[in-house]
Amino acid sequence: MTKNSKQGTCKVFLTDRAVSDLLMIEKYSNEKWDKGVAAKYIAKFEKAFKLLELNPGLLLPNSTLSDDLLFFRVEKHLMACIKISSAIAVLTIAHANRDLPTVLHELAPSLKNEVLVLLGRIRD
């Protein structure tokens, strides 16, 4: 892959919530199918993180939810993200059939703290 000079590059950071979401996705995939399927699915997220680092403009806004939130789809999951300087923070990863506004509302208090922690890591 080559860097997109128009959009620049970003570093992708995951909140603890996003890491937990990935672990739950992996566990579910292991139980529903098998370890091979789970590994391939998780690899798609890893590719998505690298793709977003090179092409942050691929994140899509959804003004009905928030002007600050950006989204990226990986198969049947949506990553809810925010841009901070030249970084992307993945807040949570939810199955596309879930009510995303409700998911975000339920996570709001803890996500705010996680974003503050990420801000410290990004600035260091």
Task: Please outline the helices and strands.
Elements: E1 11-14, H1 16-32, H2 35-54, E2 60-62, E3 66-74, E4 77-84, E5 87-95, H3 100-123
Parallel strand pairs: 1-5
Antiparallel strand pairs: 2-3, 3-4, 4-5
Helix pairs in contact: 1-2
Explain this structure.
The protein is α+β, with helices and mostly antiparallel strands. The chain has a single domain, classed as YaeB-like fold. 49% of the residues lie in helices and 27% in strands. It contains three helices and five strands. The protein has a five-stranded mixed beta sheet. Strand 2 and strand 3 form a beta hairpin. Helix 1 runs antiparallel to helix 2. The longest helix has 24 residues, at 100-123. The protein is globular. Residues 1-6 have low confidence and may be disordered.
Task: Bin the helical content.
Answer: 40-55%
Low-pLDDT windows of residues: 1-6
Q: What is the 3D shape? A: globular
Secondary-structure-derived class: alpha+beta
Summarize this, please?
With 124 residues, the protein is an alpha+beta fold.
Record keyword descriptors for this entry.
single chain; 124 residues; alpha+beta; YaeB-like fold; 5-stranded mixed beta sheet; 5 strands; 27% strand; disordered N terminus
